[in-house]
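Reopening this one. Same input as before:
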Amino acid sequence: MTFVKSAAAAVLGTILLSGPVLADPAETAKAAGKDASWLFIQTAQKVQFDGKTLTLKNVSPSVVMFTDRPKRTAEAIPTATFIKDWGTKGKNSFVADPPNAGLTSIVDGKLQTATVELTKPHHDGTTLTYQVRVLEGTPPASGGTTSVFIDGGQCGPLDPRC
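Same output, byte for byte:
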C-alpha cells in the first residue's frame, strides 16, 4: 500500500508542478456569469520601455484571468490565445476600447509602478510588445521581474458574451 501511495503522490506532484492547466475561455466566461468583471495578469522576467513600446521578455506562456465577487473564478489561458482574441469582439474589443493596466517591475531591487493604456499587442515566442500610453507614473526603461495587471472590465477579449 505504501508503494501505491508513493506512486500516486509522485503522479499528482508531476501534474501539479508541470504547469498550469489551461482553460477553455468560453467555458470559464459562461461559468462566471454575465455580470462578471474580468482582470488578467501577465508576467515576464524582463521589461523594456522606450517611451512608446513596452517590451516584455521571457513572458509567461499563460495569462491568469479572474473575476471579482461574487463568482471569484480564476483560470490560466495561453498568452497566444489572449493576444489572438484581442480585437475579435467588435465594439467591445480591446482594439475599440483599450484596457488600462497596472505595471509593476523590479528595478535596482525596488518596486516601480505605472499605470498605462495598452494597444497593438504583438507576441513572438517569449517576447510580447504593446504600444503604450502612460496614464500615471513612469514605466522603467529597463527592469527585471514584471507583472502587468490588465483591467478587462465587463468584456475581456476572450468573453464570448461580448
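So the earlier flakiness isn't reproducible anymore. For the record, The chain is about 20% helix and 45% strand.
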